[in-house]
Amino acid sequence: MLYLLRSTLVINTIRKRLICSILILIAASSVSTTHAMDSVRTYDTRAIEAFMEGMDLEAAGNLSQAISAYKRALSFDPETLDILLSLAKLYLQTDKVALAKGTLEKVISLNPHDLQALELLGEIAQSNLEHELALSYFERVLDIEYDNDYAILQTAQIYHVLGDSIREAEYLIRLWELDTDRVAALQRAESIFLNANDYTRITELYDKLIKRMPTQTDLVGRQIRLFLGMNRFFEAEALMDSLINVAPRSIELQSMKTDLVKVMHGEMAAVDYLSDVVEEFPESWELKLKLSQLLIDAGESINARQTLEEILAVKPEQGNAVSMLIWTYLDVDDVTRAKEVLENYLPAFPEDFFLHRLMGNILYEIADSYGDSLHYQQALDAQRNALKLRPEDQQTLHMIANTLEHLGRREDVLQTYLDLIEIDENDDLALNNYAYMLTEGDVSEDTLRLAAEYVERALAVNPESAPYLDTAGWIYFKLGHVQLARDFIDRSLSINPDNPEVLMHMGDVLEYLGKSNEAYIYYMRANGLK
């Protein structure tokens, strides 16, 4: 214990000497301008003791006692900046804003260049909604320290409150120039200039920034989009060409150039351009992948297939290349070959949800052509494999519901739609299909009313859906609300007049109303469309 006590005394002594030295230097630098600069006053050590006591009390959370200690320190030496700043911060912490403001103003009177005091005074003015005053403080900070990012941000926010959006944008750009990760600031500045239709400023901005960072593709993309929006196509192309001359191997720039060529000159021109680039840089599999997509979009699936096979020969782990390769077969309706190729690749991608879902879709198409339960079961197995990887994927669940319906498993279909509705209560397709299936066969009035609730929810999401309107009409017909049913079905036919099932429903309604001749017309139209 004695050793610890002595150690504490030694530490405190060192601490006091250090603080004393610092405060003497501070006091020397804080001498009022009315005194001669070459005269340094004697420092009162009682201020040191009181200041140290205040720091200890503040650290212990005894804020009111700490304030008293700092005030006592100032009674011995009223012009020491550190003591004044510590007291001002405690005043702010204890909501004594007026006292804090007065103390900070004294700091500024002693040292007009004290950044911390100026920033705190700016914050106080902002909290009091004295925006012009706050602006003056932060502008003084920036006069002293041009790159003070905090003051820049606060100045931008004040100009926003004052309604001067152009000045706000100018400071946001300064902020972004200090830290290029602040993309939101740049986006806000851009939107301000766009809203003001000040395209000259935006162009100047991006010209300057792109010169500094020619491979910053986000900036390039913004400038290109701006040129395109202004119908300045040739300037956009010239900009792209100049940047590609600087970085010809940039995948991002070459990809953007391809997109620009597509916009300006069409799909095949983009194919030709990118084909030349790929020939020059054959190792760039990313650009080959983009070329493959362009070829598929242009209806050149066979040529795309060759390129994709080249990619997979060196990059067999690229699942998106596999899915595109499969699409080259689906694009020409060769579903069987698509299945065979995907079966070869699929074992290498046990966790690739999209490839497994693609297999489920392919097998469903094959099952649809055969129309037998064996093939539908194979499709269902593949779809469920995909669902294991992403249990709440709505597209997969809808496909499973369709497959189960073909297998005649009504209860499983209903449960699948309930699962979909639990995942997304606004899944209008699931709501409608569940409602329609509930009405099948001879069902009770309570079941029909439940079905009506579900289809009304579907219509709340999509009120102009012809199938949903028909479902509602059919349910109300079964509930005995015949005129209401006719209105719903009539609205459905006004949207899609050539749906044979809906035409048959209208015939049934008219027949029930004793309008056999009109019903006969609808039945004939329905039969002609089947």
Please provide a written account of the structure.
With 530 residues, the protein is mainly alpha-helical. The longest helix has 28 residues. The N terminus is likely disordered.
Q: What's the SSE blueprint?
A:
Layout: H1 2-29, H2 45-59, H3 63-76, H4 81-93, H5 97-110, H6 115-127, H7 131-144, H8 149-162, H9 165-178, H10 183-195, H11 199-212, H12 217-229, H13 233-246, H14 251-265, H15 267-280, H16 285-297, H17 301-314, H18 319-330, H19 335-345, H20 353-370, H21 373-389, H22 394-406, H23 410-423, H24 428-438, H25 445-461, H26 466-478, H27 482-495, H28 500-512, H29 516-529
Concise description?
The protein is mostly helical and 530 residues long. The protein is 78% helix and 0% strand.
What are the salient characteristics of this protein?
530 residues, mainly alpha, 0% strand, disordered N terminus
- Return residue spans where pLDDT drops below 50 for at least 5 consecutive residues: 1-41
Helix amount: over 70%
Gyration radius from CA atoms, angstroms: 38 Å
Order of helices and strands: HHHHHHHHHHHHHHHHHHHHHHHHHHHHH
Number of alpha- plus pi-helical segments: 29
How many beta-strand elements?
Answer: 0
